[in-house]
Amino acid sequence: MLSGASLLRAISTPDRVFREGSWSPGHVLGAGYDLRLADDLLVIPTEPGASGYKTVDAGTPPVGEFTLAPGDSALISTIERFSMDFDVAAVIGPKFRWSARGLLILQGTTVHPGYGREKVDGHWRPVGGEGEPLYFVIANVGPGPITMRKGDPIAYLQVIGIEPPQQRTAVSNVGFEFLRDRLFRTGVDGTGQGGLAYFRSVKDLERAVDAESARRDRDWEQLRRQVDAEVAEVKRQVTEAQTTIDRVNNTSNMIVVFGIYLIAVTMLGVVLTTLVNLIGDLPEKLSQDRLVLVTGLVTVYAVSTVVATAVVSFFARSAIRRRS
Ligand SMILES: O=c1ccn([C@H]2C[C@H](O)[C@@H](COP(=O)(O)OP(=O)(O)OP(=O)(O)O)O2)c(=O)[nH]1
């Protein structure tokens, strides 16, 4: 494994590891190099949490920053363009700072000798004159949104010196278009349905569950309001019925009291008439005292009957008033 001066020498040599000008000495770290996130050759969600993806490539403006909501995935590439010589290989590993935030990086382990080179006129040159970046498929499987910016270290590269193969062949890479079309299925307009299906399905499922539980909450709330309204209506009807019953009771009580009153008055009249007749029929010789006594009894009887009727009527009225 190359480290220290030999590593710096290897990556400083134009087109031996990196395409000249695509790397930065500030990112040599220990026995390796921090690969950085590019602002192009990306496939990212149109919005955090959206199911559609947009492609950022030569035909679109670069994107210096993007955010992945939980469940989102993306295809990213490195600023560093490779043009590997045939006597070096490299191993790559994820940066734990991203794992610690819940970013899953799906990647291979190796950069092969000759990666990023093509044979032109019998000479091995950087692919398309620019070399080839590395591509990674990433997914936010963490609890919160993750924002990534151009230049962020995304993977660690360690370079190994090897015996050059006898036969030099071009290294195939599935490539940006393949990954985009296979995993993200973006259309010609740069948008479409895609992403890592499992995480997207979990995300969609979560959304569906949230929507369903919100709908059920709304239904429950509506049902509760309906039940409350119906209970209030039943209470109102019971109160109304109670009032009607009370009114009927009061009226019948009044009728009973009035009946008692009439009977009492009638009986009083009958008694009085009988007594008056009896007094009228008394013999002339009956002493004056006896007449006064009979008249007094009649008067006491009449007064007490009237007072009793008045008292009964008064208490009956009071009782009726108290109930209503
Ligand atoms: O995460 C990675 C890993 C590797 N590569 C590049 C460098 C490597 O030289 C090339 C091929 O890598 P690998 O051999 O792992 O991929 P493959 O698709 O299995 O290639 P092959 O079928 O040729 O073995 O792809 C990436 O872009 N990203």
* Percent range of helical residues: 40-55%
Shape: rod-shaped
Count of structural domains: 2
> Proportion of β residues?
15-25%
- Would you count the extended β strands for me? 14
Name of the top-level CATH class of the largest domain: Mainly Beta
Described by strand count, sense and barrel closure, the largest sheet is:
5 strands, antiparallel
The set of bound ligands, ions and cofactors reads:
deoxyuridine-5'-triphosphate
List SSEs in N-to-C order.
HEEEEEEEHEEEEEEEHHH
Helix/strand/pairing category: alpha+beta
| Number of helices, where a helix is a run of at least 4 consecutive DSSP H or I residues | 5
User: What is the radius of gyration computed over CA atoms, rounded to a whole number of angstroms?
Assistant: 52 Å
Give the CATH architecture of the largest domain. Answer: Distorted Sandwich
Low-pLDDT runs of 5+ residues are: none
Q: Mean of residue pLDDT?
A: 88
- Which assembly state applies to the chains in this document? single chain
* CATH domain topology of the largest domain: Deoxyuridine 5'-Triphosphate Nucleotidohydrolase, Chain A
